[in-house]
Design goal:
Length: about 425
């Protein structure tokens, strides 16, 4: 009798543990940001046509908000419900890691719709993820008054399309490829270059790693220095592909042009294929360039810089406009960002240029700027698309006006298939 009672107690304990484990595993995964925004992992879809999972509402109703996204190839979309204070929209991106924490890439929201006031459904399409792993880790990088912060919490997502993949054969470095009369030699590719994301990111986090590429360039057999890598699309044999603009450019000790960018891909799947866009930095023809002097610098938000057409914006009118090669360009007043703390004591900002119609395939806008004292300002970009482009200035100093040259010119493209080396 005692044995029967004992086994009954043991069975009850085991059943209780099993129920607790089931409830724990079935609990929604939630990340709470510093500003109180609650992010809930709603689901993951795989394929070419994606519809957001239904969300239960008060009263037992279920809604998706009509959120959907389509892709040309099979891909993964992560669906997240964002709950936040009214009129306080979160600014964040997903960071995608492998379980071994060897590398990460970023993903921004591709689609969103309102479920109710203060709640949106957002879809993040993953163009790159550790396709060979059974699981992937998703963390959140948020931006706000406290600068950039990485969430301590994380989402753990099962890979819906794990598989094996072919192997590519790398070419040895240095490797030379050509586009017309421009010969570009990739002399170095380091996949573990350092990149300081600031105090909001742990030092050993893969977010503090970048890729450094160096290029020797000759045109018509003569070494030239007015061509610079500005965009690199990195892909691997598993189907990952991610496009990167330059975070930092310069010259190495050999005089070769360098580009440091985020993000690289995972070291478990190499070699990488690099499609490099080379762009001129000077030597523009008169019909390619437009110079505007005394462009005002005005305080404003990050959002107003990207979309300063709003009814309440002080910068809703173009400061100057012209037409280059059939493209109508508008230049808006420069913005000094006031709603974000970048943590480096510098006055960051940018300037917006619109193009109508949008840039033809293979063409690029370049923006060169000096302050009222004639000092050249470092700038990133311009980035954007759809006829809307932003050149960012990491340090505006105390400039009140800028002298800006906008150039519309054709890029050159070369491709390399190589193994990244360690520095």
């Amino acid at each position: 009798m005692k044995k029967i009672i004992l086994w009954s107690i043991v069975s009850a304990v085991i059943a209780g543990i099993a129920v607790d484990a089931f409830l724990w595993l079935s609990k929604p995964q939630v990340i709470t940001l510093n500003d109180g925004t609650k992010l809930t992992l709603v689901g993951v879809t795989y394929g070419k046509h994606h519809v957001a999972p239904k969300v239960k509402m008060a009263g037992g109703r279920a809604r998706t908000g009509g959120t959907r996204v389509d892709s040309a190839n099979n891909t993964v979309v992560v669906w997240i419900e964002a709950e936040h204070k009214a009129n306080q929209y979160p600014n964040y991106q997903l960071m995608v890691y492998d379980t071994a924490n060897t590398a990460c890439v970023s993903a921004w929201s591709r689609t969103q719709s309102q479920i109710k006031n203060g709640v949106e459904m957002q879809g993040f399409m993953l163009n790159a993820y550790p396709r060979w792993d059974s699981k992937m880790i998703l963390r959140v990088m948020s931006y706000g008054q406290r600068g950039q912060q990485v969430s301590k919490e994380q989402f753990v997502v099962s890979n819906p399309a794990r598989g094996s993949f072919p192997k590519w054969t790398p070419d040895p470095l240095p490797d030379t490829q050509s586009d017309g009369d421009l010969n570009v030699t990739l002399t170095r590719l380091a996949g573990d270059a350092s990149f300081n994301r600031g105090s909001g990111v742990p030092q050993k986090d893969p977010m503090n790693r970048a890729v450094l590429a160096a290029f020797h360039t000759e045109q018509k057999g003569v070494v030239v220095t007015n061509w610079q890598p500005v965009r690199i699309t990195t892909s691997d044999a598993s189907g990952n592909s991610i496009e990167n603009n330059s975070w930092s450019s310069g010259r190495d000790d050999n005089g070769d042009a360098t580009m440091t960018y985020q993000w690289g891909l995972w070291p478990d799947q190499t070699p990488w294929k690099l499609r490099v866009e080379m762009s001129r930095t000077s030597g523009f023809n008169d019909d390619e360039a437009w110079t505007v002097q005394n462009v005002p610098v005005q305080p404003g938000s990050w959002q107003s810089m990207w979309n300063n057409n709003g009814r309440n914006s002080r910068t809703n009118s173009a400061f100057a406009e012209t037409t280059l090669n059939g493209i109508h360009l508008k230049l808006f007043p420069a913005i000094q960002i006031t709603d974000q703390n970048f943590g480096n004591g510098q006055r960051q900002g940018g300037v917006r240029v619109t193009a109508d119609p949008d840039l033809p395939e293979g063409f690029r806008l370049s923006v060169l700027a000096t302050d009222e004292q004639g000092r050249q300002l470092q700038n990133w970009g311009p980035n954007g698309g759809g006829g809307n482009y932003i050149a960012q200035f990491p340090n505006l100093r105390k400039a009140r006006t800028l002298n800006i040259t906008v150039a519309l010119h054709k890029s050159r493209f070369v491709e390399f298939t190589v193994n990244p080396a360690k520095q």
